[in-house]
Amino acid sequence: MALRLGAIVEALGGELHGDPDTLIVTLAPLETAGPEALSFLSHPKYQGLLAASKAACVIVGPDHQAQASLRGACIVVGEPYLYFSRVTRLWKSALERPVRDRIHPSAVIDPEARVHASAIVGALCVIERGATIGANTELRSRVTVAEGCHIGERCLLHPGVVIGADGFGFAPNNGVWEKIEQLGAVRIGHDVEIGANTCIDRGALQDTLIADGVKLDNLVQIGHNVQIGAHSALAGCVGVAGSARIGAHCTLGGGAIVLGHLELADHVHISAASVVTRSIRKPGHYTGFFPIDDNLGWEKNAASLKQLNRLRERVRSLEQKLDNKGPS
To answer: In tens digits, what is the pLDDT along the chain, a chain of 328 residues?
Structure first.
């Protein structure tokens, strides 16, 4: 398969400097791109790779037009990374084959489930009683949508996703655990993408809510009654404990943890591997982890941290004595 540079620009816009009849056979990063590839420069720290790249054409911003033109063809746009994302969708649409069966023969769909006529249900999927699958939503292989859960329109659920398993609810009784039935469901909005083997638990009494445009990576765990606001994005292995509320346009880096019943305001960004132990009500970028070190250094620093409270009290006591003494 190949696309003309001119056809790409006609479809997506941008300012082409080069031969519109140049054929693009593949998409590739700068360092590995060959003479039939389209690549992109999205961050200035990679500009050193630009001059040496063998790509047929590079997508760049206005600041790098001159440098890119010295090496060959380029497409100049305001946001190169966003433009490249659109190129990937254009490329995939050109490669796609017609869908033979929208419902794979191996899928199991309860008669009381509602699946829109335009939805695609892959191999070995299970859709239980009362579940709803919206228009143009795709469930890839082995997705499970449990009883009463709702998936909106234009969603994509990757292999192994489980929507609506029981939340983790148990009551202690004389050294044993008694199950708390999870009576809520999961409601997912429109344009949501959920990565492979991610699990979203059903609510205990009220529904777990995932708003429009949310993006969840692989192996994400969302506990019962969690609410995630519109267009937030959670990277791989994030864990959100029950009843936490995450605002709109938030991001959580890989492996981050949000403890239960906490609240994150809109536009809060959490660094990878951080543990959120308190509610965050002000937008911003937050980090909460202990930096890696050689083991001996880490142990010494950890031992010092254990004494911080005692040292703080000593400082307060000394400050109080100085205040009582007054100026000499």
So the answer is: 899 999 999 999 999 999 999 999 999 999 999 999 999 998 889 999 999 999 999 999 999 999 999 999 999 999 999 999 999 999 999 887 777 789 999 999 999 999 999 999 999 999 999 999 999 999 999 999 999 999 999 999 999 999 999 999 999 999 999 999 999 999 999 999 999 999 999 999 999 999 999 999 999 999 999 999 999 999 999 999 999 999 999 999 999 999 999 999 999 999 999 999 999 999 999 999 888 899 999 899 989 888 989 999 999 999 998 888 766 5
Q: Which pair of structure tokens corresponds to residue 300?
A: 């010494």
Is 142 inside a domain boundary?
Answer: yes
Distance CA 252, CA 265 (A): 13
**Cβ atoms 186, 224 nearer than 8 A:** no
Tally of domains within the chain: 3
User: 17: domain CATH number?
Assistant: 3.40.1390.10
Helix axes 5-12, 80-95, angle to 10 degrees: 110
Residues 81 and 113 in one domain: no
- Is 144 a member of any domain? yes
- Domain coverage including residue 20: 3-95
24 with 64, same domain: the answer is yes
100 falls within a domain: no
Residue with tokens 């490329």: 91
194/114 same-domain check:
yes
Report phi then psi at 251, rounded to 5: -130, 140
Residue 174: what residue type?
Answer: N
**231 and 119 assigned to the same domain:** yes
Q: Is the pTM of this model over 0.85?
A: yes
Which residue among 150, 158, 190, 224 is the active-site one? 224
**Could you confirm whether 224 is annotated as catalytic?**
yes
